[in-house]
Sequence to fold (51 residues):
Amino acid sequence: MSQHNSLQGPRGIVVKRNVLKRFERVEILRKRGQWKAGDRVQGLKKTTPEV
Fold:
């Protein structure tokens, strides 16, 4: 569902998301060395967005 234009700031929606997509979580875990190619993508560890 989209957000109404009147609720956006002058630069659009600039809110930091706290829920990541699966591919974003895999990328973070890969950078940390906690996920390798061939590992399962279901049941991933919890991750926090990078600052």
User: Anything to note?
Assistant: Residues 8 and 19 are 20 Å apart (CA to CA).
